[in-house]
Amino acid sequence: MQSRRDFIRISALGIGGITLGSRTIPGLFGKSLFDNPVVSEMKRYPTYCEVCFWKCAAWSHVDAEGRIQKIIGHDDDPHCNGRLCPRGTGGLGMYEDPDRLMTPLIRVEEDGKQTFRKASWDEALDLVAKRLQELSATYGPESIALFNHGSAGHHFSHLLKAMGSVNASAPSYAQCRGPREVGFKLTFGQVMGSPEPLDIRDTKCLVLIGSHLGENMHNGQVQEMADMIDKGGDIITVDPRYSIAAGKSKYWLPIKPATDIALLLAWINVLIEEKLYDVDFVQKNTIGFDQLAHHVRQMTPEWAYGITTIKPDLIRKTARLMAAASPAAIIHPGRHVTWYGDDTQRSRAIAILNALLGNWGRRGGFYFPEKVKVPDFPHPPYPKPKWGWREILDGKYPFAALSIANTFLDATIDEESPYAIHGWIVAGTNLPYTIPDVGRFEEAAQKAKFIVVVDTMPMEITGYADVILPECTYLERYDELRTSPHREPYIALRMPAAEPLGETKPAWWMTKELGKRLGLEDYFQYADFTEVLEWQLEQLGSSLDEMKKLGIKKFPRKSGPLYQPDNEVPWFNTPSGKVELYSAQLKEAGFDPIPNYTAHPTPPEGFYRLNYGRAPMHTFSRTSNNPYLADLMDENFVWVHPKVASKWSLENGQEVWLKNQDGIVSDLPIKVRITERIRWDSVYMVHGFGHVTKKLTQAYGKGVSDTQMITNVMDDPIMGGTGMRGNFVTFIKEQIS
Fold first, then answer.
1. In this structure, are residues 454 and 445 in contact, taking their beta carbons and an 8 Å threshold?
2. Architecture of domain 608-732
């Protein structure tokens, strides 16, 4: 069936110069460092990584010929302590990738077929500005939405606000961390943020519930976990899969998927019934303890055993281990926590368990972070929008603190809504491999009247664009100062180590040029982004010259000590000013004030729950084409328990197609890995593979996209998180024609 917006595979264009190609810049890709072991003296330039959200600070090293040779972690950076993960050291592959987008592209129709053609920047930006103006004049600026991930989002969000729209969304909120932030905010009055303020290096007991430290990297925390192990600390890992962290654990609890809340409530039961909780902390700092104790009275380890398959004795042993280590004990809040649709309540249970251990503001528990407030470069006040993402929600998800990306799809599909979205700006996020329920995305993409995509690579999302704007990589540009909460406040500089290749440009330049065309020059009162940085740094008592030399600058703490003084009672930013074990806010909104366990569907006969995760060398689908990181892992496998493999007569390395509970069959086959490291009722794969864009020459046709298999999305009614682990798959051993 012909659609209004064809999915265009850039590789089919046959237009030279769209992507970099190994022949475009002689010698850049054809020469290895190993071809010339004598490397000339190199200059170094400060940067911070863009390969994942951890954004480790680093130095880019450039030889006398102007080639970036290596990236080394910054010793003073609290995110990395001078040591980068595989992704960080492989970031050079983003710069050197021969498949990079290199010129603006515009969708056109030739001989009845949609395709892209090369365009100049002036032509592309003129068209983008014209279409944005038309949408704004017809439907209002609020009808334009931004989907973003990474540094480009900051610049395009500024442009969107200047136009009069606040409809910007990072899929990472609804697809990843949102329930955790809301659960902890409701309990402690504080979100976790990034990085989470966990004193892992000094903890004596770390509990990981579906948190794959060592595979999802989170560099600083992985390093602290290694230090904690060296000091004799214990780890408890709760996971249906024997992860890398499980291999370092004192206890591995191979829990039945979707039953985590039952285990958490049983642990709470043990702490209360055996009086192992921190009585002093609970009495001074919490409300709702009596209601909590009554609530969990019948939720014993024996009760949980019948649900979780974890034996009562093991539940008691692990609860006692946490209590013996408290307050230097941490139940990790997790990061990707959108699982079953009751995820805010699971995060609430984790927060309550931490409170019972008395670890808030205590060494080995949660420390008090601090960050540098970087002032905004002067600009006029933003116009007040007539409506925004809260009107799109229309009362749904009452505790959502940020916009929900999936609801922007719904608002695009419902063209008659007074809060309809008609135009998309997509910056740095590959939506078809990010947002679950691909069919819903496809429908929304067809309804959108205009889509502009900003990216460094020809990802699948570019196939839906009307205009593609090629962004240069983080190694070729200035960006905003990095600052985030940590033990010490600091700032980090990103500056270019090389000129942008081809016709690529930084996002700050794109938005400034669009602002000029849209009559918004007053919001971009600088000729170059270095003027913004210089002004900001002057307000902070530094300068661009100083930061070029330092890369990282630390500042004295001003908010108080890292831990709570013993003689002081902390104040919590909740309605009661205390830790709320019982949440009146949730009760008033019609939700359970204390978490409850609710049974979830189990796999039908012949199907297995689809679990997915990360690999230390890859970030989502963004890195699977990186030539250096693809060398470390170039495809994903489906993990299958030996009993299941025997039942299906599967062999290691055999290719199978997957079919989910809704009849969706994977576009590509995936190889089987037979292992006892996964429960018999589940399968597992690494996220981010299964690319169907041929121009991604390293990644095309390798493995399966787990996102394609996720069509059953269980929305969290409290904040709108998209529960994605209620999907089941079976095996097809021969391709369906």
1. no
2. Beta Barrel (2.40)
